[in-house]
Design brief:
2 copies of one chain form a homodimer. By secondary structure, chain A is α+β, with helices and mostly antiparallel strands. Chain A contains 16 helices and 23 strands.
Chain lengths: ~600, ~600
């Protein structure tokens, strides 16, 4: 090794020891008679000191030529610092330099290598190798490393076997768009990159592998919204001879293990919520349960969702047309917000009227601290009605009721957004707090009005609940629930899975419902259906979005800094400048031609 | 769980316990009054028993309908067997069945699910999910799992950080052919799949990550020779602030750790051999050192290879034209083979004359046990000369000398093959024995006569030995040695790496030598050369072929059973039937057209 220690390692106990350190120049301070260099590596920063009368003069000469990010090797003795720095672990000591070697020089970096850099996103991505030198980014990737090691340690301990499934597979029309790879050896034919190893892990179950996992790259050629990547990583798992309960317990165990070993946090058993309740009480299938603020329905004319409660209508008959015409009137109580100013209330109204939220307006009721009650619909509703609403919503003096009305699904979706906005405003979405839950009993199918057909809500291999098979047979497709589950943390779906179909007939029926012709189903998934005829065990599994899980553990909003070399929203790696054109010779060998129709 | 235990778990100590097992029917033996079922899962086989008068009659009825590979759930009590089977760990017990449930039926499999199957390669690959049920294949993948976990445990313990590098990267003309991926969002442009994460891991060193590893899929679009796969897995590693010595010690440590933890074998420190010595004494850069049988040069006119010994000419001046004209006369002594029959010697002659070996003929000398000596060149050489050869080759009574002559490189290559063949015939290549070594000091460059230019022997990022830079500058390109090293186990190159260039000027010079124009070098590798200007540390690394390493640990010749879903020699996955055609719509979206010129 060119060094005896790292830049994060030396303490007072090392005083007097001769050491050699390697690292990058973080800062140089030259006070004439004394010159300090902060030397940085992955492990920390250690102060080097050159003192007039102590260090040889030529060392000063040499050190004055150094710039930021020069790579140095320094030899010297560890000494106690006169002025200690208790902000860094090495702050008690410095190195009295006896020898300095420049391992490499550095041009002035295009942005500062500091925790808070002056580099914009584009510049940081172009010089990602410099951005990765910054502590927050480095720490994010170190966290990811620990997450990966601990994931494997847990699953290995549970007798899961890690199996690598192929990357060059077959394109399937269901789901998102595939990336494809022309085959040189098979002219006119293509491989596809996997959107997930779904069929392979099911085949591994047919093979008897019984407990499989993989931390695996997957690929989706989608138009990239913010924080989506064309290649992403999953913790992919599958188990045989299990019930849904076994999967929930096993992977609840994984997440507890990760919180314990990576974050030092003991989390409680995960609550479970049905999809129906999640929609009813939070308006979304991935509720952020760090805070309550549940929905209260003041009127509900739809019977789409099963509910054990009798719906009370507290709003009809008062000639308020918005509520009269509404399928659903639903609200939340924001604790302690009765004193919101007109301006604040206007902001909230503007918020819900934004096109991406789509509400027509917002009704509010102030439950003032002095016991009075005041609403934006005083013209239609008297104090008795308003107090009735407040009571239904569990609101007391000082609280603010926020109520939306309209078509049920849209209104729920809008109120879910408003709830999150209120949580944000009230500081209830603390990134250092974690609230995990299971959402269960998803619908098996959802109808796409535009495409005019049913789609699998999870994927075509998900099994209906046995007790709902009769509904499936009766054609009540929308009412059939699946043995499907999502793990939700802080309002983010971090993982999802299902108990699978393992019977050829049911799988064929499912493909039929999804609009596959028999021939199509066989061409695409014949191998899987055939496999089901040779002794397929009952099985199910789950996949976690690893990038997202890491960013959540890291308390970050974006996944980008948890990926070493991410792509931008146009799917480009601006550092290596790809995608790029390839040679005509290459294209010819691959039996393809570019057809850009003058766009290039 | 549907089971209380696995099929590999129950012992005498469980006798009397009520259990539930799940698994596949391996065999059924029906003796009328007694019926046995061997139930198999990933963990083993357990015997189920149904006895007349004990089990209910309807159980017999039911069990008689079962076929091989049916998936069962059996409940019953563990009992001591009357006739124990000491060949399996569960052989002391059986399950007295009280309840049987068919979880799934099975068609008769297309080949037997036994250790030695009757299925040919093609059938096994088409039904790979059934092939994977066979114990040898399952054990191979279990071994791979342990290898992966232990690799990570060791490297994590050495402070290596696992970083995922991108799969969608940029095509480069150097090296093998790339697989490419058309970009929908960037018409006419393509990603490429990585042949290795080489440039990314070097950038991670520039970023200060200092110790990186990854177990990672890589891709090469090559014409597949036997036992090559278009996608393969590497253990990829890189370190900063190190010398070659540090890399050798660190990764020698990895291999020792793997042998210890996976195989229970303590291996000795790895011997080191220069490339020059490997070529001189074994004729190959990856010698199988499980056995000695080193080359002895009887005449060597070339001075291509540095050698500390004076070459003795023991063959010239006797008018034997083959030796007179030869650049190199070189032989091996096969211990105890003096009594080889004429037929055996003819076989060896035929062996070396095969076109892929290419020798013109074989000279032999029998050092008979009775002290006489006899050769195929008695016409030209007397007993004194022959005894001189035998002495030079360290041969004694009972040994056989095998000698080849001709152009130095070709002759060495041919004798290397003959040496391996003799090792095979003499049983010296025991798959359960392991002999590891480092081969060092590879040439930096090799000249390709056909292409008329120099190629990097390792890759363009490998650094020349500092003491050989003068040779590089003087244009003696063939004499320049690299800081490059291979790890060889049993004649297989399992890993290789180098200390890298980390200086822009030297890297540009290297690209120049390799025939890149300045502009090409910048377009392809500008980001790396630019990175070198921002403070690149000295660094180096290594990559291990993980598939091959696993097969070596598994004592197998082929890597295929150490890959869950391998492709055949035409790059096809015959199970899922890919590559395959894709829709015109898909092609159009990707801005490409198939151009098979009537081949399709």
């Amino acid at each position: 090794m060119l060094r005896t220690h790292t830049c994060g390692e030396l303490r007072l106990q090392h005083a007097g020891q001769a050491v050699a350190l390697c690292g990058w120049v973080q800062t140089i301070r030259d006070k004439g008679g004394i010159l300090w260099i902060d030397l940085r590596d992955r492990y920390g920063v250690t102060q080097l000191i050159l003192e007039e009368g102590v260090a040889r003069p030529e060392l000063f000469e040499q050190a004055r030529q150094f710039g930021r990010e020069f790579v140095l090797r320094a030899e010297g003795k560890v000494a106690e610092r006169a002025a200690k720095n208790d902000k860094i672990p090495t702050g008690d000591v410095e190195i009295r330099v006896e020898r300095l070697e420049v391992l490499n020089s550095a041009k002035v970096p295009p942005f500062t290598i500091e925790d808070n850099t002056d580099g914009g996103e584009d510049l940081r991505m172009k010089y990602r190798y410099l951005d990765l030198r910054r502590s927050p980014v480095r720490r994010s990737l170190e966290l990811r490393h620990r997450m990966a090691q601990q994931t494997r340690a847990y699953l290995d301990g549970q007798h899961f076997i890690e199996v690598e499934t192929p990357v060059l597979i077959k394109s399937t029309p269901e789901g998102a768009r595939d990336f494809v790879v022309p085959s040189r050896m098979n002219p006119g034919e293509f491989y596809a990159l996997p959107q997930s190893p779904q069929t392979f892990k099911q085949l591994l179950m047919v093979s008897g592998f019984d407990r499989y996992f993989q931390i695996v790259k997957c690929f989706r050629d989608e138009d990239l919204r913010a924080d989506r990547q064309p290649e992403f990583t999953q913790i992919d798992c599958e188990m045989s001879f299990i019930t849904q309960e076994d999967i929930l317990n096993t992977f609840e165990g994984l997440v507890k293990h990760l919180f314990r070993t990576v974050k030092g946090i003991e989390i409680a058993d995960l609550p479970r919520m049905s999809y129906a309740d999640a929609m009813k009480y939070y308006g979304i299938d991935k509720p952020d349960t760090r805070f309550e603020m549940r929905f209260t329905e003041l009127k509900h004319h739809s019977t789409n969702l099963p509910s054990q409660e009798t719906v009370v209508d507290l709003v009809s008959g008062k000639n308020f047309p918005v509520f009269e015409d509404a399928e659903l009137v639903v609200g939340i109580a924001a604790k302690g917000c009765a004193e919101y100013t007109r301006k604040q209330l206007d902001e909230l109204t503007e918020f819900v009227k934004r096109p991406q939220i789509g509400a027509k307006g917002l009704v509010y009721v102030r439950c003032n601290a002095d016991g009075t009650i005041k609403s934006s619909v005083d013209k239609f509703y008297g104090e008795a009605e308003l107090r009735g609403w407040a009571q239904a919503m569990g609101a007391g003096p000082g609280d603010l009721l926020l109520i939306l009305a309209g078509e049920a699904n849209k209104t729920r979706k809008a109120l879910a957004e408003l709830r999150l906005e209120m949580g944000e405003r009230l500081g209830l979405r603390d990134k250092s707090k974690y609230s995990c839950l299971w959402v269960l009993d998803f619908p098996l199918l959802e109808y796409d009005e535009e495409a005019g057909r049913w789609f699998a809500m999870h994927h075509p291999f998900t099994s209906p609940k046995p007790e709902d098979i009769a509904l499936l047979d009766a054609g009540s497709l929308g009412a059939v629930r699946a043995n499907a589950y999502d793990m939700v943390i802080n309002g983010v779906e971090v993982g999802g899975g299902s108990i699978r179909i393992y019977n050829r007939d049911l799988q064929e029926k499912m493909f039929g419902i999804l609009g596959f012709s028999r021939e199509e189903a066989r061409r695409q998934f014949g191998f899987l259906m055939e496999a089901f005829e040779y002794g397929a065990p009952p099985h199910g599994g789950i996949a976690f979005g690893f990038d997202r899980l890491c960013s959540l553990f890291g308390g970050a909003d974006s996944i980008r800094d948890f990926i070493a070399f991410p792509k931008n929203n146009a799917g480009r790696d601006v550092m290596i400048d790809t995608p790029a054109t390839i040679s005509d010779e290459q294209l010819k060998e691959l039996h393809v031609r570019v057809a850009t129709e003058g766009k290039k």
